[in-house]
Amino acid sequence: MTEAAAPEHAAPILRLRGIGRRFGGLHAVRDVDLDVAHGERRAILGPNGAGKTTLFNVISGDFPPSSGTIEFHGEEITTLAPAARARLGMGRTYQKSRLFLGLSVEDNLYLAVLGVQKGHLRPIRLRRRDGELRDRARDLARTVGLEGREKTLVGSLSHGEQRQLEVGMARAVNPTLMMLDEPASGLSRGERVALTDLLLQLDPSITLILIEHDMDVALRVAERVTMMHDGRVIVEGTPDEIRANQTVHDLYLGRGNRNDG
Ligand SMILES: Nc1ncnc2c1ncn2[C@@H]1O[C@H](COP(=O)(O)OP(=O)(O)O)[C@@H](O)[C@H]1O
Ligand SMILES: [Mg+2]
């Protein structure tokens, strides 16, 4: 087919308008408008406390917003529960790992797959579908580069492998939108390269929003970058525009964290 993109691609997959979130008197996120296109790779950058994780929590439904609206695939989801959003195709990871360290790679993925089944599977139905769900868990392990590690206890994986597994857990919902919160944090240089490669190989139909502290990872993976500071979006642009932006330099690159440019 040589037709142009399907009509639904004209509208953004995610649209935020006037999103704010307060914690008591603290405005963690304020007045954020954000449009993310289908299949886009978007990075969200910003210093600690900028409101990045809170914004993810509002998008995923973990916290309701104090103001504003959220549309996903053109439907308003502002007050929808997190599990319902997951079933609509939102997958995410958390800045603080939520892996079960005492279980194997496969069991962690299995639980993630099981978690997004509609309703609770009755035991008989579950037994019948168990093989299918296990296969899916092993597929996911392969997709994120953990083939051969399925039976390994998660606690004995390297940090890099744990981050890969978190990406696999987020993929368990068959996401159309995947949100990763600082997937490269705590990784060695080599592990960061492996993770960046994994993200670059991701199915191009999956929309990706990446919170990243590491500029190298963010600017390599993202097509557009949103920079937050003090709860607000202060700059948005392509990686080149971000590299050239004085505000970004002042806020972010000033502390000897210089690239070759
Ligand atoms: N659950 C919470 N309760 C109270 N304050 C919070 C909570 N979560 C985040 N904050 C505050 O909101 C601000 C933004 O935090 P966060 O979204 O975690 O920033 P980032 O991810 O950019 O580092 C910070 O001042 C933080 O202390
Ligand atoms: Mg954070």
Name the quaternary structure. single chain
- The chain-level mean pLDDT equals 88
CATH class placement = Alpha Beta
Reported CATH architecture: 3-Layer(aba) Sandwich
List the helices and strands in order. Answer: EEEHEEHEHHHEHEHEEHH
Summed up, the helix count is: 9
What is the helix content? 25-40%
Bound molecules: adenosine-5'-diphosphate, magnesium ion
Would you kindly provide a written description of the structure presented here, covering whatever features stand out?
By secondary structure, this protein is of the alpha/beta class. It has one domain: Rossmann fold (3-Layer(aba) Sandwich). The protein contains nine helices and ten strands. The strands form two sheets. Strands 6-7-8-3-9-10 form a six-stranded mixed beta sheet, with helices on both faces. It has a four-stranded antiparallel beta sheet with strand order 2-1-4-5, covered by helices on one side. Helix 3 packs across helix 4 and helix 3 packs parallel to helix 5. The longest helix has 21 residues. The radius of gyration is 19 Å and the shape is globular. The chain starts with 13 loop residues before the first strand and ends in an 8-residue tail after the last helix. Bound molecules: adenosine-5'-diphosphate (ADP) and magnesium ion. Adenosine-5'-diphosphate binds next to strand 2 and helix 1.
Chart the SSEs and their pairings.
Blueprint: E1 14-23, E2 26-36, E3 41-45, H1 52-60, E4 67-72, E5 75-76, H2 82-87, E6 90-92, H3 105-115, H4 123-143, H5 159-171, E7 177-181, H6 189-200, E8 207-211, H7 215-221, E9 224-229, E10 232-237, H8 239-244, H9 246-253
Parallel strand pairs: 3-8, 3-9, 6-7, 7-8
Antiparallel strand pairs: 1-2, 1-4, 4-5, 9-10
Helix pairs in contact: 3-4, 3-5, 5-6
